[in-house]
Amino acid sequence: MTAWTTRDIPDQQGRTVVVTGANSGLGEQTARALAKAGADVVLACRDVAKGEDVAASIGPRAQVKRLDLADLASVREFAAGIEKVDVLVNNAGVMAVPLRRTADGFEMQIGTNHLGHFALTNLLLDRITDRVVTVSSAMHRIGRIGLDDLNWERRRYDRWLAYGQSKLANLLFAYELQRRLTAQGSTVLSLAAHPGYARTNLQSRTESIQDWMMNISDPIIGQSAEKGALPLLYAATSPDVVPGGFYGPDKFFEMRGHPHRVRSNARSHDETVARQLWELSERLCSLT
After folding, report:
1. In a domain, 208, yes or no
2. Which residues constitute the domain of residue 11?
3. Strands 62-66, 246-251: pairing kind
4. Alpha helices (runs of H) in 101-158, residue ranges in sequence order
5. Does residue 214 belong to any structural domain of this protein?
6. Is the dihedral of CA 134, 138, 144, 146 positive or negative?
7. What is the side-by-side strand order in the sheet with 189-193?
8. Is residue 55 part of a domain?
9. HSE of 218 in the Cβ direction (CA atoms, 13 Å)?
């Protein structure tokens, strides 16, 4: 693959794309690029005011709907209001935050990054016509799935290990979803993507000295949110994707560059854990 950019996005006229967390960062840039290519974009945001500002700057192809992934009632309400969606981009997330709980009692990172998107995808799946893109991270490599304590109720909480668990869960979910779609004879695709090291406000929410450290490293190592969104956009639009494929930057240890297909670690391909995580997620989200 050679230097794929937003200029290579196929015509998106007539297509509807839902992008979670589209009020800033990667989600905003993804929504902007898709609308420019002709798609109607739903900005699924917890902060509706910020979302409205972004939508106004994009133009009439963008609309905002409230979605709080840390509250399953909000997820259900949002899904009930969507009539048609060609592509769902599961982008929103939190990173390395202090121990907090969602409205449903889940640890905030697994609750927002995985369980909220798991519920959203399953609730929308009968209306998705083309593909689901779930955003993971290179940090999935430090993750371990604690099936017996997914929500850090007995383990000593570690913000980075909790983040790694949630990003590993994203990949296990994306791959398992593709297996289930294939088994049902569906033409809908499940894909995963990661942005590399992109400069977004995600790095300023740890509420620790690490915010200051990342603010120093961001301009040196990180690429722009526009560049970080490229793997997401490739996964969301390219006709050349592989079912169940994982896409990220092609240079500097996958921290920056143009999108290409990348590999994830062995734990992300553990089909037994993926199935068990799926079944546990169904129970936690009261879904079947």
Report:
1. no
2. 6-197+224-285
3. unpaired
4. 108-109, 117-124
5. no
6. negative
7. 62-66, 40-45, 16-20, 85-90, 128-135, 189-193, 246-251, 256-261
8. yes
9. 17
The CATH number of whichever domain residue 237 belongs to comes to: 3.40.50.720
Place of tokens 């902007």: 32
* pLDDT by residue, tens only, the chain of 288 residues: 469 999 999 999 999 999 999 999 999 999 999 999 999 999 999 999 999 999 999 999 999 999 999 999 999 999 999 999 999 999 999 999 999 999 999 999 999 999 999 999 999 999 999 999 999 999 999 999 999 999 999 999 999 999 999 999 999 999 999 999 999 999 999 999 999 998 777 644 555 555 545 554 555 456 899 999 999 999 999 999 999 999 999 986 678 899 999 999 999 999 999 999 999 999 999 998
Catalytic residues: 163
Quick one: 13 exposed, middle or buried, by C-beta within 10 A (0-12, 13-18, 19+)?
exposed
